[in-house]
Design a protein that fits this description.
758 residues; alpha/beta; Rossmann fold; 2 domains; 11-stranded mixed β-sheet; 10-stranded mixed β-sheet; 25 helices; 37% helix
């Protein structure tokens, strides 16, 4: 008699009779109607919006302002300034240089344009490594000794706000107006919102394209542009021993850069922000290139304004850039004029945060009803007087006359984008050594010391990479509903409460014939992108999932197939967008869902709490790298059709299947390049068993990438820690799918469950 027959005969003697149960013992009837996955996503959306709102009051825990004096105040917010630099990627050393270079022509032309009051030059200056700032230098005929850095919106060029090109009314050409009034003005070009396909794939703006790789590598397009601004500050302050006064003035995207720059660099004496200042609570709906990881956890625009204090800050409520971007692979976005009442409230909040009138030099200017034109006379004059007591802003002068052929602004932007892109690709080559330095305190001399010294990294992963809600799990309140059965198993829907408005949902498949006192291992079988629990049981997408949850149940394992959040396209991607500014990710919600699932499974009579495994395909494989490191009740993890040199796949521009060119705009995670690639995530699973399942023809990457990254995992397990049998990889001749051969053997072995004889 085969072992299979013996097993089933023995199990029938101890069978727990649930043949007619419409719900599992100890659970309430599940009465939820409609698409439970949609209900789940809607609930998480409500939860995240509440959490977003709560960040405003919660930020106070990061601040310890001392308003007793200007010196004390600046010192008391130094740590907050450092944090802002970190999350904007302003971490690279700027290049030193003697002077800004004037871009001349071979015909001898040096001046770009000239009027009676100023001369314009095309200029370039070094910023970071091979990244240069470019734009215009406006030299006044009668300099007053003060400097202005005038930053246009991303929909404008330096020439437009300097009077060298059409597009902005003369009275609003604020760079020109400062130059005509005696200020030396530098006008940096910033990356535009030019929209189009990338490698003939997803359409996105140039700003989003550069944001993607930068974000993955712990940098930011905003940060690179700030570095260009601060390089000009370096130059201005070096012009004489008395370090002349400098103001930054910006509109729209330029207002963003002016505010961040002034918040970061105390050498900036005054700033003006027009058409931008807001609460930032809707940051998630703005262009994704504005997404700053963890920003709202510690900052809003009021907090940034408080970092400018006690220096002068002018806030101009004016009509800002407005556009709506539909998703064609890139992130959808909306830009609206900040609501005047919100601007007023945020300015007042900034003043309240500073806590001293003596230290508060914030002035609000309303352009009309708050929707009028930018660069009003009163605002410009206020900035002028803040950095030069004798200066004003004169009436618009005679338009400058072009001398040099106008520069090709499109070619200039291509060059600028290329420099930033080349820098991120260079950072990509350095990322392994950066991660090795990050992990320098990990002690691999023994398994015991390893387990002890890996914990700080797990904590970092939990709070800084994945993100953690400091909330207790609710009572599980399990609800179940019978779905179907075969001659070998019975299947139920399960809903558990996690947080307010957040549930966990899935399908549990229970083999028939389990003895009342018998405890079985469990395999949690996770679907991929746009998937459902039904995929893994075989109702649909069987060509990818091979009904592995059902097949494992037929081998005697209890299986659970959760519904994860990555479904409904922009709906779930918006959840990621709402999570990022809170120092959270989609997995900040998914991890507690899984913890609650495991908690419930462990409460079941027939579950062995020490034998609960995780096995996921595709995005489920992505989950296999992120959930078990934090849900340590999972005794092993199997990553199928996802394991990769993940940072490279995300950030490289050399391969068309890179996420740089696809519609997964939510996929990029802050600074994985400097912290956790997939090998490092596997270290967080170690010494628990870990396996990779890889089809040779899986288009998620190349075999050599997978082999390279797994080699690092294998070296940790087998080379350093001498865990000879706890990590494996199965290569098979196939595509993006569950193979279910080596992985099934792995499950039987490490879950100590006998393989069934055929």
């Amino acid at each position: 008699m085969t072992r299979l027959i013996v097993f089933y005969l023995a199990a029938q003697l101890l069978v727990a009779d649930i043949s007619n149960a419409q719900q599992l013992p100890g659970t309430k009837p599940l009465t939820l109607k409609g698409d439970i996955a949609s209900h789940l996503v809607d609930g998480v959306d409500r939860f995240l919006l509440r959490q977003l709102e709560s960040t405003i009051d919660a930020r106070a825990r990061y601040w310890n302002r001392d308003s007793s004096s200007a010196e004390a105040y600046v010192k008391s917010v130094a740590a907050n300034r450092e944090r802002l630099a970190e999350i904007t990627g302003v971490v690279d050393e700027r290049k030193s240089f003697t002077d800004i270079d004037i871009i001349a022509r071979t015909d001898g032309s040096v001046e770009a344009a000239k009027s009676d009051l100023f001369t314009a030059y095309n200029v370039r200056w070094p910023a970071v490594r091979d990244i240069n700032g470019v734009g215009l230098l406006l030299k006044p005929a009668k300099p007053n000794g003060a400097y202005v850095i005038a930053i246009p919106d991303a929909g404008q060029t330096p020439e437009m706000i300097s009077g060298l090109a059409e597009g902005v009314p003369a009275v609003q050409q604020f760079a020109r107006r400062f130059a005509e009034s005696g200020f030396t003005v530098v006008v940096p070009a910033i990356i535009s919102r030019r929209y189009g396909p990338r490698n003939n794939r997803a359409k996105m703006t140039t700003r989003e394209f550069l944001y993607r790789s930068s974000f993955e590598l712990g940098r930011h397009l905003i940060g690179f542009e700030i570095q260009k601004v601060l390089a000009v500050v370096d130059w201005c302050k070096a012009r004489s021993d008395d370090k002349p006064n400098v103001a930054v003035v910006g509109y729209g995207e330029g207002g963003l850069l002016a505010l961040y720059s002034a918040a970061l660099d105390t050498r900036i004496d005054a700033a003006m922000v027009s058409g931008y200042f807001d609460s930032r609570q809707d940051m998630w709906s703005e262009p994704v290139s504005r997404n700053v990881h963890a920003f709202l956890d510690q900052f809003g625009d009021a907090e940034l304004a408080s970092l400018v204090a006690p220096r002068y800050l002018a806030i101009e409520a004016a009509k800002g850039p407005e556009f709506e971007l539909k998703s064609e692979g890139g992130a959808p976005a909306v830009l609206d004029t900040p609501e005047p009442k919100v601007v007023v409230a945020e300015v007042q909040r900034a003043k309240d945060l500073i806590g001293s009138e003596d230290l508060t030099s914030i002035e609000l200017f309303m352009s009309g009803d708050g929707h009028g034109g930018f660069a009003t006379q009163s605002a410009l004059e206020a900035v002028a007087s803040a950095i030069s007591m004798e200066a004003g802003v004169v009436a618009v002068g005679t338009a400058p006359k072009l001398i040099m052929k106008p520069i090709d602004v499109n070619a200039r932007e291509v060059e600028q984008a290329h420099e930033i892109g080349a820098h991120t690709q260079w950072l990509l080559t350095k990322s392994l050594s950066i991660r090795q330095d990050f992990f320098k305190d990990l002690d691999t001399s023994s398994v015991e010391t390893y387990e002890k010294t890996i914990e700080p990294y797990r904590d970092y992963f939990k709070h800084e990479t994945i993100g953690h809600f400091e909330l207790p799990l609710q009572e599980m309140n399990p609800q179940t509903r019978f779905v179907e059965e075969s001659d070998k198993w019975r299947r139920y829907e399960v809903v558990l409460d996690v947080f307010e408005d957040v549930i966990a949902y899935g399908l549990i498949t229970i083999p028939k014939g389990i003895g009342e006192a018998e405890q079985r291992p469990v395999v949690v079988c996770q679907h991929g992108l746009e998937g459902r629990p039904q995929d893994v049981i075989g109702e649909q997408s069987s060509q990818y999932y091979s009904a592995f949850a059902t097949k494992l149940a037929e081998r005697g394992f209890i299986t659970f197939a959760p519904q994860n959040l990555y479904i409904f396209k922009d709906r779930f991607r918006t959840l990621q967008r709402k999570s990022y500014p809170q120092r959270k990710t989609l997995f900040s919600t998914i991890v507690p869902q899984h913890q609650q699932i495991v908690n419930w499974l462990k409460s079941l009579q027939n579950v062995d709490e020490d034998r609960i495994a995780f096995y996921g395909l595709s995005y489920g494989g992505k989950s296999a790298m992120r959930i078990p490191p934090l849900v340590t009740d999972y005794c092993l993890s199997i990553c199928s059709a996802d394991f990769n040199e993940w940072v490279f796949k995300n950030a490289t521009t050399q391969h068309n299947f890179s996420y740089m060119f696809t519609g997964e705009y939510e996929i990029f995670e802050w600074n994985l390049g400097g912290t956790f690639n997939y090998a490092e995530m596997a270290y967080l699973i170690c010494p628990r068993p870990f396996m990779v399942e890889r089809g040779h023809f899986d288009g998620v990457g190349k075999d050599q990438w997978v082999g390279y990254e797994f080699g690092r995992v294998r070296f940790m397990y087998q080379g350093l820690l001498k865990l000879q049998d706890k990590t494996e990889i199965e290569w098979f001749d196939g595509p993006h799918k569950i193979n279910g051969v080596g992985t099934f053997k792995f499950l039987h072995k490490h879950l100590n469950w006998p393989e069934l004889e055929e």
